[in-house]
């Protein structure tokens, strides 16, 4: 296959590692923002092959993982309502709420359906006009265009029985929050290529200048990541702090204007809660006032939420890179993919799931990723 030949060539990988070893003269901490990149780094063992002192810190790039418990609990309440069809992508079904999950509600008789596109949920609403259909719309900027397009499709069909439970988050404000944390260890970032394919990378340029950190837009294959790491370290070694584009085969500086226009037509920027992190200003999307009739939050108002019970899950520290999964006492014992305590062990992009699927064990090994981190 072409992608294997071009982006997983072991000879090229060794050359990039050798060049990285020659360039790096001191320790550097880099964060990959995307959960898909985390899985490649861990599954391929790239983080353990890096020169001593080059550490990858895994960031909050898993949209399932950062969805707060309050959103999950609201989804669970709706999914349990008789006569309501609740739709979601499959990776949300096993995410635990306060007391249960969508999968368990489905098993107990709730009409919870897995869809592969938000348009599938719109078509269900059109086919079953006597039933309310709710779609759980989560994700970063990558899924926002399709979700916005689904709202426009529902509007064009005149549907009164379709709505979205929106929990969209945005990457640049999250990077800002990480950089402003007094405990921040990050010297540079690998930005998520698929987000930048939609939004471009002009939003990152002020961050690079303000916080004096390099940001390298990077793809998802092993050679993409090795080259992105090398580009970031070259900047750090030369005292530069710019936005560079490793993923030029898919990303342009201005991104996809049509997709951006669709997002801006349907959504508005708002403050957003992140699981384990708290509220980050202007870090999420909500439906614009003219599309509030498709807002499940407003269509199905809820009463006050009970306080969240105490949990062993350290999702917030995992998502901000303050801990690695093997530093969590519950990792691999009380928290596994079959019985997760939190979202990072559930999602296909979750850091804990990446470590577990790669066979990383506790106590933490002293690798180029983990070092002194707990």
Automatic annotation (TrEMBL):
Residues making up the signal peptide according to the UniProt record: none
Keyword annotations: Iron, Metal-binding
Entry's transmembrane regions: none
Gene3D superfamilies hit by this protein: 6.10.20.100, HypD, alpha/beta domain 2 (3.40.50.11740)
InterPro entries: Hyd_form_HypD, HypD_1, HypD_2_sf
Family: Belongs to the HypD family.
Record-given protein name: Hydrogenase formation protein HypD
Lineage: Bacteria, Bacillati, Actinomycetota, Actinomycetes, Catenulisporales
């Amino acid at each position: 296959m072409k992608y294997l030949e071009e982006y997983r060539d072991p000879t090229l990988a060794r050359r990039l590692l050798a060049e990285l070893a020659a360039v790096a003269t001191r320790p550097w901490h880099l964060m990959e923002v995307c959960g898909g990149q985390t899985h490649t780094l861990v599954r391929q063992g790239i983080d353990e092959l890096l020169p001593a002192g080059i550490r990858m810190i895994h960031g909050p790039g898993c949209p399932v993982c950062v969805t707060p418990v309050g959103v999950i609990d609201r989804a669970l309440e709706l999914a349990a309502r008789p006569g309501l069809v609740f739709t979601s992508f499959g990776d949300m079904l096993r995410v635990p709420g306060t007391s249960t999950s969508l999968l368990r509600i489905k098993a107990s008789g709730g009409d919870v359906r897995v869809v592969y596109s938000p348009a599938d949920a719109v078509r269900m609403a059109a086919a079953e006009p006597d039933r309310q259909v709710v779609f759980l719309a989560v994700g970063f900027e990558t899924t926002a265009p399709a979700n916005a397009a689904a709202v426009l499709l529902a509007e064009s069909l005149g549907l009164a029985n379709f709505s979205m439970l929106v929990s969209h988050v945005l990457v640049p404000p999250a990077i800002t929050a990480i950089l402003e944390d007094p405990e921040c260890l990050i010297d540079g970032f690998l930005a998520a290529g698929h987000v930048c394919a939609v939004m471009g990378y002009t939003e990152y340029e002020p961050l690079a200048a303000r916080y004096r950190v390099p940001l390298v837009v990077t793809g998802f294959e092993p050679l993409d990541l090795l080259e992105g790491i090398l580009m970031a370290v070259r900047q750090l070694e030369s005292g530069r702090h710019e936005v560079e584009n490793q993923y030029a085969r898919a990303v342009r500086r201005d991104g996809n204007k049509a997709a951006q226009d669709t997002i801006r037509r349907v959504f508005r920027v708002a403050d957003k809660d992140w699981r384990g992190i708290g509220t980050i200003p202007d870090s999420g999307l909500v439906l614009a006032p003219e599309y509030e009739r498709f807002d499940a939050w407003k269509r199905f108002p809820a009463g006050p939420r009970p306080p969240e019970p105490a949990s062993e899950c350290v999702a917030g520290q995992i998502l901000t890179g303050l801990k690695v999964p093997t530093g969590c006492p519950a990792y691999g014992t009380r928290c596994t993919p079959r019985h997760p305590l939190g979202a990072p062990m559930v999602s296909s992009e979750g850091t804990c799931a990446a470590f577990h699927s790669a066979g990383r064990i506790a106590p933490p090994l002293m690798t180029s990723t983990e070092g002194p981190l707990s």
